[in-house]
Amino acid sequence: MTVNHEIKAAGRQGTGRGASRRLRRANKVPAIIYGGVTAPENIQLDHNDVLLAARSEWFFSSILDLSVDGKKQKVFLRDYQKHPVKQQMLHLDFLRVDENRILRVQIPLHFVNEDQAPASKLSGVLINHEMAEIEITCRPSQLPEHIAVDLSGLNKGDVIHMSDLVLPEGVEIPELNLGKEHDHTVVAAKEARVQVEEETTSSEEPAASDDTAGEESKED
Asked: In angstroms, what CA-CA distances link 161 with 43, 65, 184, 191?
């Protein structure tokens, strides 16, 4: 079932650093919509609404219904700038979505049933998640919010590669078209390496000095 995620925005006239700073002081986030045959459009969003949406994965990996002054259009969050210290979004880039064109996007991986994996019940075995997200291609209507990675059958020594992932219909991993060497590891169940430092002790005692002076006993 497809879930519609609506984000409200408004048009803006001013551009440049000065205008953007004024918007941020007013608790707004400057943004732009581009792509397709329509000219780029400068917009602004309420900062609190953006922060709330940014707590969910769908904001970064789903098709959004962006309502600009009441007019809706399908977009995808292509890029964003965030303050390095503050909880503040500085700028958003939205890409217009054309149903007739293939999307190429990064989406998150969800690792499920790890507690049921035989490898998780073995002492000294680590289940390493080598990837957190993956790049896919698909039509906008086929875009999943995430890819599930089922670990319930993972045993010691098992490796799950990108080619092992179960993808929804119409979804592909473009990197796999580049050859087997691009079929990267997603998850691996490896034995933990424990380094034991052994102290080397010498079994030989230091040689006694040959210049030991002995007392001579004299007999009368």
From this structure: 41, 34, 6, 18
Within the chain, strands assigned E span 5-11, 28-34, 41-46, 64-68, 71-82, 89-96, 103-112, 125-129, 133-138, 147-150, 159-161, 185-191
Tens digit of each residue's pLDDT (9 = 90 or more) over 113-166: 999 999 999 888 999 999 999 999 999 889 998 999 999 999 999 999 999 999
Name all domains of the chain by residue range, CATH numbers in brackets. Answer: 5-96 (2.40.240.10), 103-191 (2.170.120.20)
Residues with Cβ within 8 Å of 3's Cβ and at least 6 positions away in sequence, in order, are 58, 62
Residue length of the chain: 220
Extract the tokens encoding 100.
């007739």
* Cβ neighbourhood burial of 202 (10 Å; 0-12, 13-18, 19+): exposed
- pLDDT at 194 (0 to 100): 60
What digits encode the pLDDT tens for the residues 61-99? 899 999 999 999 999 999 999 999 988 999 999 999 988
Q: Cα dist. 164→45, 118, 127, 143, 195 in Å? A: 40, 18, 16, 19, 32
Three-class SS state of 130:
coil
- For residue 31, pLDDT beyond 50: yes
User: DSSP character for 172?
Assistant: B
CB contact burial 49-73 (16+ within 10 A = b; e otherwise): ebeebbeeeebbbbbbebebeeeeb
Average pLDDT, the chain: 87
